[in-house]
Design a protein that fits this description.
7-stranded mixed sheet; single chain; 47% helix
Length: 831
């Protein structure tokens, strides 16, 4: 077998040679283009996303090369090409996805969102602190891309089109820079403390000459900490002032500058208090807390980054299959449905594809959180993003790479964390007002001590500025939610919207769909009863014709039975689907119906008397009939999920009322409800009736959590206060739910509820601590009971405590809700 390499092309953006190895690819003008570096790809991506692809057709020479290290907003202004005859404009709103570098703490999110909201044409701005991604909803005619980028640059942040490779490298550079600043501050602190400790411990005093030497040594040792390590605080404070949005860096910067300036003046005068030890300690401890916070953010974004990095850039295409098995290396973006690809051991499958022959062992841990390999047989579908574990596989592409399971999951994951729960919004408002109140309080404290003891006025005001901890307030919620969401994602539950954990912790009613949720969703035909003159093969041929292409589990079961028997499909026209009832079509000039008994009876008349019941107790039945009478009855069975009873029990143990809401027959739902242990069963509900039932619960004051299959229950899922979709594959891209269970475990919903309760408990602990600390520490500092160094320690430890408490969520081990229930038969009837 030979592998032919694609012919190397010059960079489509700048025209320079593309380096050897796998090139960066981007779809431009309907074709994949090779680009030489991340910088060129970023600019090209922005031009494409702005609807200005014609730029490449109109240009007379290649663009200038863009170095990733020097990618600036002015260069990205290429996206602001004028709309007109040559460049089609975008008359509607557009989403702009950017990565933001320079985030110092969660207060940056508050500053960025509020600043961008003031720009003309910006409809919404959502900053994800955990991943560093910014989503801006804007009117391109009123707000060009350059306005957003230059505005962020003015605030002190660098933004560029989202690229997972560039973002990962940028995050590593920022972490290294922050570590260097922390290291320098730590070295300064240790050296300064060597001179400060003897002065604190000496009871007889120190000679004036020695004290002067210690003061000057402390000054020079503190300069690197103030003028290098503290730069993030000064930059953040200045950016907030320029934007007229003073942030939490402002009191920190004022405290550092005031203490250093006063200490410097005292050193030159040779008299007065010095606080070089407090300044260096404060800078070091605060940088340490921010370093830990940044590490927590990187860890929270780690699962999503791994998803992006797992996207294969290429695939082995068998263009002449089955006549030849020679493979050609092609960009994964070129794959289309019907292509046959080869996956070698260790390869990541580039797109959702059907296994052509043999069997496969796949690693789905990135998609579902399940560590055990999954076995697939020929004809089954392997999701894109799965890793082949054993021998080479031949697969037929079902969906293109950009529509694969991994791509759908990643798109949903990119939305995660953008929305903010009520507690986070409250903390943002409080923290914003807190800064202004703190500055006013520090000024008032200084003036008051001028009247009481002028010598204490300056150190007391500094202590007030330093001891306050608005950062702890702003960190309390996002740090905990990011840690919890990261843990859930690693376990196979994708939290799409920011309100999931908060709302789920308050839910008092849990509504479960039946088919595919409480049950396996894979019914099988256990018995058929002829009611007319046609034999089994003839009625199955009619059924297969009417149900062909249907995604409903019952239709799949009947189609699989027809395929297993090798029954040919008869021609069928005018096929119609009736939600919650069945299907209708014309075969041989007659109208036929298949579905619920009442639905078929409208066409076929009353059911023949004396019809024997199903041989399987509690089995659900599907009927077939035409204009002249009844033709057949099919009894189908489905089994309860092994963990359904344990999941329901977990919710009931938390005091949550459980409801089975289904469109199936009452006796079938009752049997499933009894086995699962739900509190209430509501059967024979159409999609509209399900929606009305949920709305009635909400009008009664209930907070409703819904678990469904994500396809048939879309309206109900959208109406829920918090909703979960069970399922994999392309259905994820259409999910209307707030969270998606990527694994096939219903127990994951109970685990999520448990994690939500723990996360909100941690959030409340953090908020309570931050509030109590500030209420106690600020008055103590204002009354002169705390020295500046004590204030520095208290403020830094407060932030460290909040972040450390939140990180416990990501380390916590999942507690099972109870023993898994045995798989018991449950019966599926008409839809």
């Amino acid at each position: 077998m030979s592998i032919a390499k694609a012919e190397r092309q010059p960079c489509f953006h700048c025209g320079q040679p593309v380096p050897a190895g796998e090139p960066l690819q981007l779809l431009i003008g309907g074709a994949p283009r090779e680009l030489c570096c991340v910088g060129c790809r970023s600019v090209a991506q922005l031009i494409v996303d702005s609807g200005c692809e014609d730029f490449y057709l109109r240009r007379s020479a290649p663009s200038a090369r863009v170095d990733p290290e020097q990618l600036l907003p002015d260069e990205l202004a290429l996206a602001d090409l004028p709309a007109g005859p040559d460049f089609p404009g975008d008359s509607g709103a557009a989403d702009l996805l950017l990565s933001v570098d320079g985030l110092r703490c969660s207060a940056c999110v508050w500053l960025i969102e509020r600043y961008l909201a003031r720009l003309p044409g910006v409809l919404a701005a959502e900053m994800n602190v955990a991943t560093g991604r910014l989503r801006v909803r804007r009117d391109p005619a009123l707000c060009p891309v350059s306005a957003v980028l230059r505005g962020l640059r003015a605030l002190g942040y660098t933004a560029y089109p989202f690229d997972p490779l560039r973002q990962g490298e940028q995050a590593r550079r920022a972490a290294r820079r922050l570590f260097r600043q922390m290291f320098v501050a730590g070295m300064s602190m240790m050296q300064v403390m060597m001179y400060a400790v003897p002065a604190y411990l000496s009871s007889d005093g120190i000679d004036p000459e020695m004290m002067a030497l210690m003061r000057w040594a402390s000054l020079f040792l503190t300069i690197p900490a103030v003028f290098y390590s503290a730069l993030p605080f000064f930059a953040g404070a200045w950016a907030g002032l320029r934007a007229r949005r003073p942030g939490m860096d402002l009191p920190v910067a004022i405290g550092i500058a005031a203490a250093f300036a006063a200490s410097t003046v005292a050193t030159f005068r040779g008299t007065g208090e010095i606080w070089f030890d407090s300044v260096s300690m404060f800078i070091f401890l605060l940088l340490a807390s921010r370093y830990l916070e940044a590490a927590a953010r990187r860890r929270s974004a780690g699962a999503l980054e791994r998803m992006h990095q797992t996207f294969p850039a290429s695939a082995l295409l068998l263009a002449a299959y089955p006549h030849s098995r020679e493979a050609t290396l092609v960009p994964a973006a070129r794959l289309k449905p019907g292509d046959v690809i080869l996956a070698r051991p260790g390869d990541t499958i580039a797109a959702d594809a059907e296994l052509i022959e043999g069997e496969a062992a796949l690693d789905l841990s990135l998609l579902s959180g399940e560590s055990r390999p999954q076995r697939l047989q020929a004809g089954q579908e392997a999701p894109g993003g799965a890793v082949n574990l054993n021998h080479p596989l031949l697969l037929r592409v079902v969906r293109a790479t950009r529509e694969s399971t991994l791509a759908a999951i990643t798109r949903l994951a990119e939305q995660a964390g953008a929305g903010k729960p009520a507690l986070a919004q409250w903390a943002d408002v409080v923290a914003a007002r807190f800064v202004l109140m703190l500055l006013a309080l520090a000024a008032a404290t200084f003036l008051a001590w001028q009247l009481i003891d002028p010598a204490q006025a300056w150190p007391t005001a500094i202590a007030v500025l330093v001891v306050s901890c608005p950062c702890a307030l702003s960190l309390a919620t996002p740090s905990a939610l990011a840690a919890a969401a990261d843990r859930l994602l690693r376990e196979g539950t994708l939290v799409v919207r920011g309100n999931v954990l908060e709302t789920l912790s308050r839910a008092d009613v849990a509504v479960f769909d039946k088919t595919g949720t409480l049950t396996q969703g894979r019914p099988r035909l256990v018995q058929s009863q002829r009611l007319g003159l046609l034999d089994d093969a003839q009625v199955l041929a009619i059924v297969a014709a009417m149900e062909r292409g249907s995604l409903h589990p019952l239709a799949k079961a009947l189609n699989e039975e027809a395929e297993r028997r090798g029954i040919a499909v008869v021609p069928c026209g005018n096929v119609q689907s009736f939600a919650g009832a069945g299907m209708q079509g014309e075969i041989g000039g007659r109208r036929h119906r298949i579905g619920a008994q009442a639905f078929v009876a409208e066409l076929s008349g009353s059911l023949p008397p004396g019809l024997p019941g199903s041989a399987v107790p509690g089995a659900g039945s599907v009927y077939l009939g035409d204009e002249h009478g009844w033709l057949a009855r099919f009894d189908l069975a489905d089994s309860l999920r092994p963990d359904a009873a344990a999941t329901v029990a977990a919710f009931r143990a938390r005091g949550v009322r459980t409801v089975l809401l289904s469109g199936d027959q009452a006796d079938v739902c009752a049997a499933v409800g009894a086995q699962a242990g739900v509190d209430q069963v509501v059967a024979q509900c159409s999609p509209q009736r399900k929606l009305e039932y949920v709305q009635a619960l909400q009008q009664g004051g209930a907070v409703v959590a819904i678990v469904g299959d994500g396809i048939n229950d879309a309206a109900m899922l959208r109406a829920a206060d918090v909703s979960f979709a069970m399922g994999r594959g392309a259905a994820l891209a259409q999910a209307s739910a707030d969270a998606v269970v990527m694994s096939d475990r219903l127990q994951a919903v109970a685990d999520c509820a448990q994690t939500a309760a723990r996360a909100m408990r941690v959030v409340r602990q953090n908020l309570a601590w931050a509030t109590a600390y500030n209420l106690l520490a600020i008055p103590a500092a204002a009354f002169g009971w705390l020295d500046p160094w004590m204030s520095a320690v208290g403020m830094s430890l407060s932030s460290l405590l909040v972040v450390g408490n939140a990180l416990r969520l990501s380390r916590a081990r999942r507690q099972p809700a109870g023993p898994a229930a045995a798989a018991l038969p449950a019966w599926e009837g008409a839809r």
